[in-house]
């Protein structure tokens, strides 16, 4: 059984009030000798404050929830680490809620965190959300009056506190890089862009770069990759009968699947096909052919999300603005100038 303030009082002979003041750092008029005795006994008894009781008094649990779609995805794992670091630096804790990219679990975890007394939520929506579903989730968060920040998958239909990347610029940089190397038949392995805002924006950036170069987008060269290795490999199966010299995959996991499947077809990267990914996760530089990719500022985004959330909690005021980070092209060995046939 955990030690209580009453146990320390029984052991030291000091009053519960005196001990409470010392342990809460408010014993300004209490002698150093008394303070030292109380603190020594607290350490001896392994005393830890009851955080539930503290939160009831202060009306603050110093805990936030992080709702993440898929913690096995390296991108989201890196985000979780950044959020945890920022919380620890500020004396806060994180409850991690993994939804497996399921919309229904989004709502379940919002309710659970509210019921558990979390002070706020950092929220990355499940990929099966439609725009209407995303708007409903924002309306629900507003209705229960819990501070929140949406990260990465930002709904277009609601003005809400959010942190993200300019994904259209990211897709544009990827396609423009391939165009600068002389490629004209550039395939695009998209995510679930029919419903997901970030994937659609990357695709729009790709289209804009192609249009600027005077090259119509060939829909036969556009395949869904679902942001997974398996999806990337399946996309190559569909594309292999088409004429292409380069592939832009809308995340690094699908780019890895693309490279793996191209090898099975005896297509060399980049000699036969140049490949660009998106995210710059840690293994991108460790692949057999290091991957050219679009780097997101994941650590900075996570830390900014925590800053915005804690500001809301402390000031009891919701910021209206979004913080959007610029992506960066990282050139490695998976792309090369097109070889004359």
UniProtKB/TrEMBL annotation:
It comes from the Bacteria. Pfam families: LacI, Peripla_BP_3. SUPFAM superfamilies: lambda repressor-like DNA-binding domains, Periplasmic binding protein-like I. InterPro entries: HTH_LacI (IPR000843), LacI/GalR-like_sensor (IPR046335), Lambda_DNA-bd_dom_sf (IPR010982), Peripla_BP_I (IPR028082). Keywords: DNA-binding, Transcription, Transcription regulation. GO terms for molecular function: DNA-binding transcription factor activity; transcription cis-regulatory region binding. Residues 3-58 form the HTH lacI-type domain. Gene3D superfamilies: 3.40.50.2300, lambda repressor-like DNA-binding domains. The keyword Transcription applies. This is LacI family transcriptional regulator. It comes from Clostridium fessum.
